């Protein structure tokens, strides 16, 4: 979730005591000066259970926050969208994509960077490069992606490690180490790679099976002509109550009178 969505979706999904989810991570921009060391989180965050909702700050915005350690990938993505940059650093990327901002207290206005209108194109280009790098075999990737520290904390919050594995060393792990993935996460070419016998498909019928669809006629069920049809409830019975217009989902209900 991004900052621009505001507080309402967070209240909807994670009102304290009435949560619809077990974890909700909010990725926000600090939108502060590049030199600022402040990492300001939404003021309404304490309204929610901290074990369920947490915010993680990209400083000052998303693009520069992911640049460190990924300079080669960033440079290639910039070239793909026509924004060649000789010296790719967090600061140059920030200046490239920054939005226009009106100055306050006699400060000069800040002009938009030359890439401010190409954020979407850049995101798609970088996503493609990251996908290729993640799928590359050992030694093939020229620049293995690096996950920024605040995003590491975000994923650690969403997917906490097994308590039995707490304390195991993460540093020094090979980013290209082969992982044992569940079948549902495997590519099509990797199905049944574990050589386990398949026993749950013998009673299934597939459209391309020999013999056509005669089995469908055998299994067809005729409707009971003597059964009475259920009457559909009237509209006023479907929505007799609803929250006041513009109110939070947890607000007191108002009774709607259709008469």
What key phrases describe this protein's structure?
mainly alpha; two-stranded antiparallel sheet; two-stranded parallel ribbon; 259 residues; extended
Descriptive overview:
This protein is mainly α and about 260 residues long. It is about 25% helix and about 5% strand. It has helices at about 10-15, 60-65, 70-80, 90-95, 120-135, 150-160, 215-220, 235-240; strands spanning about 25-30, 55-60, 240, 255. Strands 1-2 form a two-stranded parallel ribbon. The chain has a two-stranded antiparallel sheet with strand order 3-4. Helix 3 crosses helix 5 (about 120-135). The longest helix has 17 residues, at about 120-135. The radius of gyration is 27 Å and the shape is extended.
List the helices and strands and how they pair.
Elements: H1 8-14, E1 24-29, E2 53-58, H2 62-65, H3 71-80, H4 90-97, H5 119-135, H6 149-158, H7 214-218, H8 235-238, E3 241-242, E4 254-255
Parallel strand pairs: 1-2
Antiparallel strand pairs: 3-4
Helix pairs in contact: 3-5
Q: What gross morphology would you assign?
A: extended
Secondary structure: helix percent: 25-40%
Strand order, main sheet: write it out. Answer: 1-2
The low-pLDDT segments are none
Provide the structure class. Answer: mainly alpha
Portion of residues in beta strands equals 5-15%
- Cα-based radius of gyration, to the nearest Å: 27 Å
Total strands: 4
Question: Strand count, sense and closure of the main sheet?
Answer: 2 strands, parallel
Distance between the termini: 42 Å
Helix/strand order: HEEHHHHHHHEE
